[in-house]
Design a protein that fits this description.
There is one protein chain. Helices cover 26% and strands 32% of the residues. With 279 residues, the chain is of the alpha/beta class. It has two domains: 105 residues, Roll (Ubiquitin-like (UB roll)), CATH 3.10.20.10; 133 residues, Cytidine Deaminase, domain 2. The strands form four sheets. It has a six-stranded mixed sheet with strand order 9-8-10-11-12-13, sandwiched between helices. The chain has a four-stranded mixed sheet with strand order 4-3-6-5, with helices on one face. Strands 1-2 form a two-stranded antiparallel sheet. Strand 1 and strand 2 form a beta hairpin. The longest helix has 14 residues.
Amino acid sequence: MAHFVRPVEIIKVTANNRELVSDLVATEEPLEIRIGYGQLTERQQKSLSVTMRTPGHDFELALGFLFTEGVIQSLDQVESIKYCEDVGRAEERENVVRVELKPEVIIDFEKLQRNFYTTSSCGVCGKSSIEAVKVNCTAISVNERINADLIHTLPEKLREAQRVFEHTGGLHASGLFNLKGELILLREDVGRHNALDKVVGAMLLKNELPLSNYMLLVSGRTSFELVQKAALAGIPLLAAIGAPSSLAVNLAEDCGMTLIGFIRDGKFNIYSGKERIDR
């Protein structure tokens, strides 16, 4: 847990007292994601993103980001991934990741039409237009139907696994469940989209994409970007403790995804894909 939190001294103020106490805060540091590409005799490097993230699972984050942004389509296109050793101060080296792509990978940077600078609190940010970030996701077909009672059990399973949040209250979580409601993978980050990219990157490393036999639960609200990333990973059902945005609902409908929000107190709302949910 040392990577995820840091100790700080705070002044705790109550109605009648001020007290100097120790506390824990979620770690937030920049991660620069670079790619190496081109023929072996003419390798080039490009910095694609600087994202504010919680250190840990950085390679998963980088791979998940490249996949959900459409830069790569499979793990077979990746030659290697490592921290950069040529960035100056030693303490900065674990904040720069370089993903080497295989020589045959062709990248159309103009087609990406994105400014890849993101921050830990953004939803859709740095985009020139909404159309520029919409992915051409294949419509997600209806698979097994999920009982509503199973959906109600997911938040408690996520909370039980979210150890760091108990200490700081400052991290978002993305939990990947199988269709039996068993938690398969949990990733946390100060950025909600980073937590999801870490999940996608971890499953990409296992060659288990698309994630058509899984459900995803996120701890906060659902933004357009989260639906976009989940859809590209082939996730048929995305659920959240909080609310979705209007653009998130629209994209979920377009992609045939089941989108659920406000799972609490024995209730939830279905915003799209109601045909997957049984009573």
